[in-house]
Task: inverse folding
């Protein structure tokens, strides 16, 4: 077990603000030892055993062959912070990816019923333009992923198939140092967490609206205007889902380059872009709210955001800006 991972484990257990903060609670007399949570006590004991074994104890064959000790050591050696902002961001992204898979199973009425009630035809040219723009953006972004994982991102499949998101958890399971984070790193991570939080809300709202409207459609309880609104919703998911995938990819790129940003003169440009992305996600939350139903406006918003993302990543000087 690496010394830095030991520190991450101890920092999580004792001191991280979003963790159990055992040190603070004990030192301030806020813990009743008689009702101290057993699971935390077990974690402290396991951590103590790991530290004793790695840094004080001598090699012991019996311990090495002990099944329980082997599991404890294996967990410790693969430990990544759970309660540091980066660790919390990792959990948010993985949860959001899982939520996004629900978009594969969104219920839809039979196509002939949709066409019968639709007052507009979905523009194939419009969808093609969206896909083409996305491809250009992802080609630019792909260069900034860890080199050994770039080939896992197949652009054609990424924009079409939600299942291809599953290569992102592999990236997020890589170890990212959480010790000695400069303030700039924490500022970037804070923005990324807010963006992912808004993405999660958008996904929840789209799934909820789709499922509830589908039930009403099949029960024939929707009025004429509501049916048209529902069709707009179905059309907009062809844009909202790729937009969420793009935001998750952008967050992934930033987290793997976040320490490089600290030394860049154009750091403010990156912060400005992330704030723009956050504003986009917040607006999308508003538009997709079941009380607003601004599905056409959502599509226009996404088009504008895609254009801004493309301009931003094209403007990056790869040699000077390591992102």
Result:
């Amino acid at each position: 077990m690496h010394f830095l991972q030991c520190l991450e484990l101890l920092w999580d257990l004792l001191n991280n603000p979003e963790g159990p903060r055992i040190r603070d609670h004990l030192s301030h007399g806020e813990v009743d030892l008689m009702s101290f949570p057993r699971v935390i006590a077990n974690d402290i004991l396991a951590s103590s055993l790991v530290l004793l074994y790695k840094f004080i104890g001598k090699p012991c064959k019996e311990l090495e062959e002990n099944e329980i000790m082997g599991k404890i050591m294996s967990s410790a050696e693969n430990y990544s912070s759970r309660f540091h902002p980066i660790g919390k961001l990792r959990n948010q992204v993985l949860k959001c990816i899982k939520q996004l898979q629900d978009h594969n199973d969104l219920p839809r009425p039979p196509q002939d019923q949709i066409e019968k009630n639709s007052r507009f035809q979905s523009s194939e040219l419009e969808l093609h333009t969206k896909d083409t723009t996305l491809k250009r953006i992802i080609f630019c972004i792909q260069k900034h992923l860890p080199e050994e994982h770039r080939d896992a991102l197949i652009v054609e499949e990424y924009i079409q198939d939600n299942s291809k998101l599953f290569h992102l958890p592999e990236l997020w399971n890589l170890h990212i140092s959480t010790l000695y984070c400069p303030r700039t790193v924490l500022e970037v991570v804070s923005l990324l967490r807010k963006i992912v939080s808004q993405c999660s809300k958008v996904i929840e709202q789209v799934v909820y609206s789709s499922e509830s409207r589908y039930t009403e459609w099949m029960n024939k309880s929707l009025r004429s205007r509501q049916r048209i609104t529902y069709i707009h919703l179905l059309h907009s998911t062809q844009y909202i889902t790729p937009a969420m995938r793009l935001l998750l990819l952008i967050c992934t790129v930033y987290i793997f380059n976040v320490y490089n940003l600290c030394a860049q003169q154009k750091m403010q440009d990156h912060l400005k872009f992330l704030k723009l992305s956050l504003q986009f996600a917040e607006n999308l939350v508003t538009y997709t709210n079941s009380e607003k139903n601004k599905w056409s406006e959502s599509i226009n918003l996404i088009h504008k955001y895609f254009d801004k993302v493309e301009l931003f990543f094209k403007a990056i000087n790869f040699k000077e800006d390591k992102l």
Notes: The radius of gyration is 24 Å. The CA atoms of residues 204 and 225 lie 23 Å apart.
